[in-house]
Design goal:
The structure is a single chain. The chain is built from six helices and no strands. By secondary structure, it is mainly α. It has one domain.
């Protein structure tokens, strides 16, 4: 007769009585770290590379918004939205909503690139939508917590 094999023990973060394979726990931890790293990279991109030139009225940003006919008010508004989204990507309860909002902003950027700017940089917003959609989906569990917090305020 063979001896019974020992069951796989629960991971430290798993609820009592839940059996989790150790490799799944390590893989999940790596996935969470990778997702968090992606969020930090996108937050840096939106905060520094995208919002900052608009908020300091860098000539390249100002020219683009003048060409659109949106002027400095449009430039500062888009810059503020991007900066707010960048910060919100780093706040756990806001991560999913921030990713959805930034993705919506990228849909608008794509439409503007195609309709007004000749489509030269139209791929950039489309490329950015992919990781934003991943973050929105992966962090969707925080949406219930956000709704609960909003209901407490109301």
């Amino acid at each position: 007769m063979s001896e019974p094999t020992a069951p796989v023990t629960a991971a430290p973060s798993a609820p009592a009585g839940v059996v989790v394979a150790e490799s799944a726990t390590a893989r999940g931890r790596r996935a969470r770290i990778a997702l968090r790293g992606l969020q930090v990279l996108l937050a840096l991109f939106y905060g520094i590379a995208s919002a900052l030139p608009k908020l300091i009225a860098h000539p390249s940003a100002a020219e683009s918004f003048e060409e659109l006919g949106w002027g400095s008010a449009g430039m500062y508004t888009i810059g503020a939205l991007e900066l707010a989204g960048a910060v919100a990507l780093l706040i756990p309860v806001l991560q999913s909503v921030a990713a959805m909002a930034l993705a919506a902003l990228m849909v608008g950027a794509f439409v503007v690139q195609i309709a007004v700017m000749g489509g030269q940089y139209a791929a950039t917003p489309l490329i950015l939508i992919v990781p934003l959609a991943l973050i929105a989906w992966a962090r969707r569990g925080h949406n219930a917590e956000l709704l609960r917090l909003l209901r407490l305020q109301g």
